[in-house]
Amino acid sequence: GESVGLHLPTLSVQEGDNSIINCAYSNSASDYFIWYKQESGKGPQFIIDIRSNMDKRQGQRVTVLLNKTVKHLSLQIAATQPGDSAVYFCAEARYILGSNYKLTFGKGTLLTVNP
Amino acid sequence: GAVVSQHPSWVICKSGTSVKIECRSLDFQATTMFWYRQFPKQSLMLMATSNEGSKATYEQGVEKDKFLINHASLTLSTLTVTSAHPEDSSFYICSARDPNSGRDNEQFFGPGTRLTVL
Questions:
Q1: B-chain residues within 8 Å CB-CB of A45?
Q2: Fewest beta carbons less than 10 Å away: which of A34, B10, B78, B116?
Q3: In this predicted structure, what is the pLDDT of residue A4?
Q4: DSSP β-ladder status, B10-13 and B113-117
Q5: How far is the alpha carbon of A81 from chain B, nearest alpha carbon, in Å?
Q6: B104 vs A60 pLDDT, higher one
Q7: What's the pLDDT score for residue B103?
């Protein structure tokens, strides 16, 4: 079936380096793509989203890139800090009834930041 | 920001018993809440969409008679796992949409409930 998946299950970086987390998706009928951060034993935390008609969006220390041609999404974290260590999920948001969006999550990438 | 809480944060029960998990929106009224299940080292899987005052919409493969959802008020949704078995052991996470947030695609997630069935 349709799914959102990730290339790299784990990523280890040094503190201060830039991190890039990748995601491949298969369903083109999505309205948004969203990145979430999940720390151990907690619920997901919104990081940044991008509309399907955009190719780049920047936030504070984070940038999301969307390549619809190859159905690829990436999250770039600048100057990675130990507090960034977590599992990162991409999610596809598709509109459903009642002004709601249904989220389909990818498999997740564990980011470990070494001091 | 919008805060969603869950209770309990963890629960251990015997096989065959039922467990109720509460999801509350603390500072906003949530017309829609979502229930997810997450197995260890896996992704979140949507179980059902809960709309206040109406029946929940379940995802394919999720048994509605086993996972009872009630959304009786704009700040509370409950998930009851009936006749729980060890394979139901999982991390259950709810989320809520704030219709006044200005972002229709934004869901605020609760901290999750760890269910262990012995």
A1: 109
A2: B10
A3: 57
A4: parallel
A5: 23
A6: A60
A7: 77
SS3 for chain B, per residue? CCCEEEECCEEEECCCCCEEEEEEECCCCCCEEEEEEECCCCCEEEEEEEECCCCCEECCCCCCCCEEEEEEECCEEEEEECCCCHHHCEEEEEEEECCCCCCCCCCEECCCEEEEEC
Residue A69 is classified by DSSP as T
Residue B102 half-sphere exposure, CB side, CA atoms within 13 Å? 1
Cβ contact (<8 Å) for B105 and A98? no
Which structure tokens are listed for B1? 């920001």
Show residues of chain A in contact with B32, CB under 8 Å: 98, 100
Task: Give the separation between CA B113 and CA B77, rounded to whole angstroms.
Answer: 14
Residues of B in contact with A46 (CB under 8 A): 106, 108
Percent of chain B exceeding pLDDT 70 equals 99
Q: Are residues B32 and B51 in contact, defined by beta-carbon separation less than 8 angstroms?
A: yes
Residue with tokens 């940038």: A63
How far is C-alpha A55 from the geometric centre of its chain's CA atoms? 14
